[in-house]
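Usage example:
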Amino acid sequence: MSKHHVSATINGEAVEYLCETQQTLLDVLRDELGLTGSKEGCGSGDCGACSVMLNGRLVCSCLVLGVEAAGAEVATIEGVAQGNSLHPLQQQFLEDAALQCGICTPGFIVAAKALLERNSNPTETEIRYWLAGNLCRCTGYDKIIRAVMGAATNMRQEARHG
Amino acid sequence: MATVVLQGELARRYAGGQTTVTIEAADYRALIDALERRFPGLAAAVSVRTAVAIDGVIFQEPLLEPITQHSEVHFLPLIGGG
Amino acid sequence: MGNEKQTFIKNPTFKWVGTRPVRPDGMDKVTGRAAFGADYQLPGMLVGEVVRSPHAHARIKSIDVSAARALAGVHAVVTAEDFPDLPSEIAAGGEAPINFRDVSHNVIARHKALYEGHAVAAVAATTAAIAAHAVALIKVNYEVLPHVIDVREAMRDNAPLLHDDLFTTGIDPQPTTPSNIAGRTQFVLGDIAQGFAEADIIVEREYTTQPVHQGYIEPHACAAAMGADGMATIWTSSQGHFMVREFCAKLLKVEIGQIRVIPAEIGGGFGGKTTVYLEPLAMALARQSGRPVKMVMTRSEVFRASGPTSGTHVWVKLGAKRNGTLTAGEMILKYQAGAYPGSPAMLGGMTGFAPYDLKHAKAVCYDVVSNRPKCAAYRAPGAPMAAFGVESALDEIAQQLGLDPLELRAMNAAKAGTRALYGPKFLEIGYAETLAAAKAHPHYSAPLGPNQGRGIASGFWFNIGGQSSAAVHVNEDGTAEVVTGNPDIGGSRASMAMMAAEVLGIDLAKVKPIIGDTAQIAYSFLTGGSRVTFATGMAVVEAAQDTVRQLRERAAKLWKVEFAEVEWRDGMAYCTRTTEEPRAPLSMAAIAHSCAKTGGPISGTASINASGAGPGFGTHLCDVEVDPETGAVKILRYTAIQDVGRAIHPSYVEGQLQGGAVQGIGWALNEEYIYDQQGRLLNPGFLDYRMPVASDLPMIDTVLVEVPNPGHPFGVRGVGEVPIVPPLAAVANAVSRAIGIRMTDLPLSPPRILATIDRAKRST
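Running the assembly step on the lines above writes:
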């Protein structure tokens, strides 16, 4: 069985890869492209650890085939920081101790970023429902929700002053 | 004399049902040697499955711990955690 | 002996301890750079897959691997035949006695498969697709046997027998016929007959809890490679790489020195990663193939084949006088161990009554095997189920006597000098302080609306110490590395660096915490039992103190003064000799820079076996609203209060309380293993095994009560276990009060609550 040749844009860079038909986008990112920041917690779209943006839409990359990303723009956790400059969400996760083991953190940051891009001032309830597809077993979510609220505040202030 | 408390199977099987024993010993090693002389087989029985509480402090490996005149010694199941 | 030379550091004005700096490994974790168990890729690496039993109980009559072996791309196939047949013997483990025969049989079934998902063979192939194909080609000839799941059914005389060589221990004389009851343990204090005779009221109830999984988000994952010299290297995500090394050496009969284990970042464990599943298989496959092998469990495999905790049946009888004084308590605890002996039943028996000053108490604990995966530790193993019973019974006593449930607990609270059912007397403990903090918290006096209820419950855990090593290497420029041997599961690098910086007196940014692999640091017992900040922290403090001593010696040499004439303050050496002209203070950097002149590199080490872990107590408040139409429970408000000794990094201590509370809420409300008639798990995925998500919960408020532990230089108590102990009863008490019916069976899922409400309506 021959592999598929796929061209896509990943974190702003043109990328070409070969993948098998059954390989998921998550498999491609992790195993073919070495982008291991997206994690596999379940493989069934229930935990959100593999969250990426596909053409501007938040998806579980374990539910997308590698071939489906042909011609698409994919954004992963690896593209969230600009070089060594952290995104306000990443900074707030650190300052609020919003992670313990850290395995779910990339998915939460990608998902929360998607939320703040469409709603710069979400309520606690809106954040909780938006992130209901991301499982965390360590924190009880408290500090994660606070970090997202804090980052949103910081980003709004930055937008006003910037 | 330190007080050694034996619960359940230890008392029944090795000490003829006696649940409290007094022993003169300067450290745990001397205490367990003395216990073994009095109740053969007890030392082996507490060597693997057991932690030891000496005056309220739990030790997994008490061999060299000091024992005082007023010490109270208990044998407990090993305690782990998650 | 570790704490003998320790002195408790009383100074309340710490520079780092008690502050909330950004964790040193944080950058890598928020950017996706941190390498977890499945993130390792080696040249020529094969993919390993496991063949698992589809039956809950079956004799393995034969395994034909020839077709799989012949498949192109398959490089290794192993079965139990490729592993030494170990004798049954109890070895002294660090946490619990270990029978390595059972561990071996659990890793790969020999003769019998004892649960659905039990590994029977493993393959390694060039791709995942080929490995999956090879798995399908392995023909296992099973003789399906009757199975048993439920703990009480497994205890019956005519129950299907898992092991024909299992004879109940703890009964005199020991039975001569085998059964599924591995052991009976009993704890007795005083005379319960007398205690119950003194009681004005007695509450007696049966409680059940369902088996639940730790639910770490990272599935088990590892990679193994075998050098031409026979040296094995294993990269794995575990709670203890020294444990992995020891277990693999035992199971594959090689010397410990032939294995090096590199700790990956670990994506949650909660006790579930304190044993091995994949590592010995990966090592055997790597040995056979001569190539590196990577193995990663699917979520379904995690649920079906890694260790959950027990489903339980707990009977509780509590007696009290009219004024609320408890007179006696009795418990019978029956816990599923899974396929091999070793449930935490006895820990339930030891902990359930521990918060209370009971003169007369008794607990009888049964460890029972059944056709489920062998249970593994889960946060305060065994304690939440016992506390569910005891704390629920207390709530009923409070209701029947018309007493405030906090008052009832306060008047019976254990304190220094109280004798625990398991024997010794408590030293300094802070249970009463958690009750006082609960009483004073605004949560406790907030009004409740219709269909709402407030539940109170407390919990206890021993906490442990154990063996730990630490090294502090002073670099040429005065920065330092702190090397320890414990995987960082929840931010422990931060607390290690903070304690080292505190003792060294230098800026936290100058201290880099490193987790050394098994070849880089001396033995350290695993990350579990809430021991790392306590025991490994103690090793770090001692290593840093050793480093300070060396720095003072070097300064003395440079100044040509006596050691005693050098003081160490704020990261600088000061000379106290006043008879000569003053010597300018020397910084750590200055001393380090000239270390070659004064004797070579400066490196402090400590290897200890820490004792003196202070027990922990917590009290939780929970408000719920029950929807009478659907039976759904909404958690409205939750407050977790705990004696934490001293919080090194309060944010991560709060995080332990919040995370433990929410795991307990999941256990109380929704989580359960559901089996079909054949003993197959019906819900091996996150969709149907319903762990709490963000929208299920409110913020989890915390109160850190600090009653310092005199057994630790900074007063640390372990904090990770206690928070999962109270929530089962806190939630159940809240629900019971909200609907006016006592709930004794978990989980309190909507169908169960609705059925209970409907039953009550029909009977009135």
